[in-house]
Structure formats: C-alpha cells, structure tokens
Amino acid sequence: xxxxxFDIIASGLCFPEGPVFDWKGNLWWSEIEGGALWxxxxxxxxxxxxxxxxxxxxxxxxxxSVFFCDGARGxxxxxxxxxxxxxxxxxxxxGPNDLAFDSAGNLVFTCPGNSRVEPTGYVACLAADGKCTxxxxxxxxxxxxxxANNCVALVIAETYGRRLWCGDWDATARKWLxxxxxxxxxxxxxxxxxxxxxxxxxxxxxxxxxxxxDIFRLDGTRAGCLATPGSxxxxxxxxxxxxxxxxxxxxxxGQVLSFPQVGNGLMSFVGSD
Length: 273
Fold this sequence. Notes:
single chain, mainly beta, 4-stranded antiparallel β-sheet, 0% helix
C-alpha cells in the first residue's frame, strides 16, 4: 500500500491514543504511557494536562469537560480544562478503554481488561444519574466504539475477535438491541482498534500492527483502506471543520497524524474494493 499524503501534528509521544475534537474545534488526544492529555488549539498552540494513570479514550460532555478512560486505575475520569481539576465518575471496572456519549448524555465505555485469551470483556453504560449497567459481555477485548445514524446504532470493535459489531441503540432504556457481527477484519496481526464514522456512514477503523486504517460500509462490505506511515495506528477521528481531515494516532512512531485529503467521503486515492 502507498502511504497517502499526511502531516505530522505531534511526535515524540509515548503511545498516543483517543483523538477527539471539542466543541470549539480544538484537537485532543491522550498519551497512555505518558499519563497525560494533550490539546492542540485551532491556532496551533499546544497544552498538556498531567493526569497520571494510563489515559486512553476521550469524549466531551456538553458542559465542556473531557471524560477519559484510565485502564491502570480501572476508572472513567473527567477533566475540567479550565482549572485542570480531575475527578472519578466510575470506578471498579476492568481496564476501561474507549468511550462515547449518546444523544441523551449516557456514556458508553468498553472494558477489555485481560480478555485477549478468554472472552471476559464487557461494555458498560453510565447514566446521567450515576447508575452504571453492563450492556454487553463475553467479548474478546472490546475496544473502539462509535454511534452511527444519529445515535440510533452503536458500533463496537472486538479486537481479538477480529470483528465489528453493530446493533440498534435505545438511549432511554440504555440497551444495545440485537447486536450482530457487521464484518470481520483480515488485515494485520490484530483486529480493529479505535473507530470513527464519517457523515457518509463509512466506518474507519485502525488496525494495530497492520499499518492501515480499514474502511467498511454499514452493510459490512469493505470499502477500502488508508495506509499509515507507522505500523501501529491506534485510533482516528474526523476534524469537523474539515481542515485536518482524518486525524490518526500512531504508536510505533509516537505521532499524531493528519490526512487532510480524507474527509467524510471516501476519496479516490484510498484503495477501494
């Protein structure tokens, strides 16, 4: 595969993950082995928030706070960017990995723990009132997740099952209804990691160890792939302004990358099936 044109946003990082854009359009990511959250503002300034632990997936609440998974502490935590204050919002979980808010403010997060060999991973949902329930279990390392079709469907990556799952999402009942295997991945030594869904419904999923972002349609058919300069892409996110295109975190080289020509549509230079 030929690596498409890319720009390096940040380098020298110790296992970057969790790219996400806040309500102001600033780009955030986590540094798992560095115990930090990073923010690159729209003007290009960079801030670092030392939070400790092993921060992973990030998601923004409507109040402007950033929620993040901390696999080392078994917690979901949140940071107030205004004063750098952090607090725990859910604890006692099995290595929380990635998370996303639905349209009702419920927070869904994956908990793979040590489920690389045995299917002991699960997915939980934290309601606004603080009640936490398990919505799926028996998974081989549940990892990235994203809501599709205006939050009426939920897609979850099962890394060591090498597949993507999709099911209807009931925000009121906080239930994942009849999840089905959407597709199986074949690239690289591992299955899907972090995922992003474009406005066109295409699912972009980082395949750690493969040096590519695999692309699937919501009917499960493969639409193409995007080669990355390093072998270990971990996650991806679309810039809502379109300026940075698809942002990818890559662990082998410790970089955050921008593929500016990859918007929410499948571009002609991306290898397609």
